[in-house]
Structures are given as structure tokens and as C-alpha cells.
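Hey forum,

I'm writing up a methods section and want to include a predicted complex as supplementary material. The small molecule is nicotinamide-adenine-dinucleotide. I've pasted the protein sequence and the SMILES. Can someone with a working setup run it? I'll credit the forum in the acknowledgements.
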Amino acid sequence: MRFTTAFVCIVTGGTSGIGEGCVRKFASEGASVVFCAPGASDGLALEAELNAGRAKSALYVPCDMTKPEQVERLMARSVEAFGRIDCVINNAGWHPPHRTIDGFSIEEFRALNDLNVIGVFAACKYALPHIRKVRGSIINISSLTAVIGQLQATTYVATKGAVTAFTKALAIDEAAHGVRVNAISPGNIFTPLWQQGIDQSPDPKKCREDGDAAQLLGRMGTTEEVAKLAFFLAVDATFTTGVDHYITAGAELAYGRKTQI
Ligand SMILES: NC(=O)c1ccc[n+]([C@@H]2O[C@H](COP(=O)([O-])OP(=O)(O)OC[C@H]3O[C@@H](n4cnc5c(N)ncnc54)[C@H](O)[C@@H]3O)[C@@H](O)[C@H]2O)c1
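Reply by user p_vandermeer:
Happy to help. C-alpha cells for the complex are below, copy them as they are.
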């Protein structure tokens, strides 16, 4: 347990994968944690598990991050419940199945932007008046693909490029308020989203093996490993802002066989 005084963290998309890992980590360190997903009941079991045997410090709020009015309500509800916001982890996001540009419609790209980019903007916009009061921080979950690209993923990569760039611009403005804004760019982290990719691939076994082999360390990362980095950035990294933190086990290093021809 690290916290002896109140610390309130909001995790968007906290019911699965990296977001759930962050919810569990901050809760285990004694923070109050608010987390959301679009479904009315998606996070209630996790909320009950985390609150068992102690004063209520985990709160699930149904919220679709593509709906700005719901995002504004998420922030208001958090302050109503716990009185402050110290940190927002903008994690909610989606990676569509792999296709070339011919296979993505304009509407699909717009919809992905609504979640992966506008949702992050809205969360920052509505949380910052509260975060500034306690000189807290924001952590945006971007992706290594924003820097190195990815096969048949133009729309996803473009949204994550926007998240990384937005993080730096916001860090510049918010420094005047003592607020730090950082990005985490994961490489391959094994989550239900990654499993979806495996299930949709023509050769699931090879897809998993390739996913593991893409890292110098020969395995995918865990949600706990990402959560530890997020915790460090939120609590200990007091001289760090505007930085894109890779958590990739070296996936971006060295030459490999990359041609598709
Ligand atoms: N897993 C990886 O390898 C990897 C790599 C790089 C970046 N990321 C990023 O990390 C984040 C989490 O990915 P994950 O792999 O844990 O995915 P996941 O699918 O396991 O979890 C996604 C979470 O977001 C929530 N969510 C989805 N749509 C939402 C919406 N409209 N409103 C609110 N919540 C919504 C889901 O309910 C879920 O809780 C995403 O932004 C993803 O792009 C993941």
C-alpha cells in the first residue's frame, strides 16, 4: 500500500486487459479507482471484488467514451464520489481487424477516431479542471505502432499517432498548472484484444507465435507490467512530462525480415 492520503485515479476501459491491470494495481496500492466501459453492468463484478471487506474505494461507471456528454458525467460522478481527481489513464481503445486502405470506409475511420482520439481529448478536457487543483497527471495509452507503423492498420496507427502528438502538446500547456501529461506506448501485450486478433487470423497458432517472437525477450508483455509503469508515472515520476514511454521488450530494434514480397 503506497497511499496514506486520498489518491483518486480514473481508468477508461477498465474492465479488460491493460485497463483492468491498471485498476487492480492502483486499487492494491490503496487508491480510489473509478473505471468505465460502455455496458451498464460490465464492471460491477470487478467493483464488488475490489470493495470486498473494505470501505468502498472502487467505482464502476457505465460510460461510452465516444459520447462526450457521458465522459463529462464520468468526471462529475468521480468527483461526487471521491472529491478529487489525481490521475486519468486514457486506456479505452480498439484495434480493428487488419485490412488495406481499400477495406476501410471513411465512416469506420471516423468511428475509430471518436473512440481512440476524441474520447481521449474529451476525458482530458473534462478532467483537467479537477486535476489542476491537485497538480495531478494524465497518462494516455498510445501504441508502439504510432512510431513504427503496422501492416494493414492505417486507421489504428493514425489514431495512435494522434494520441502521442496530442500528449506532447497538452504537456506543454498544462505544465503551467503543475500537471504532467505522459504517454505509454505498449508493444505486444497479451490481452483479450490480442486474443481477438489471434482468433480472427487464418493461422491462430502461427499468429500467437509471431506475436511472441516480435520481442527481443521472446514473449508478449503482461497487463501487470504495463500497470506498474503507469503507477510509476502517476506517483513517482515527478520530473517527467511530455514523454512517450515504450514498453515493448525491444520490438522496435534491429533488422528482421520485413518485406511482404
Ligand atoms: N494489447 C496490446 O498489445 C496493445 C498494444 C498497444 C496499445 N494498446 C492499447 O491499449 C488499450 C487497451 O487495449 P487492450 O489490449 O487492453 O484491449 P481490451 O479490448 O482488452 O480492453 C479494452 C477496454 O476498453 C473498453 N472500451 C472499448 N470501447 C469502449 C468505449 N466506447 N467506451 C468505453 N470503454 C470502451 C472495453 O470495455 C475494455 O474495458 C487500447 O487503447 C489499445 O489500443 C494495446
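Some notes you might quote in the supplement: The two ends are 53 Å apart (CA to CA). Residues 8-191+222-247 form a domain with the Rossmann fold fold (CATH 3.40.50.720).
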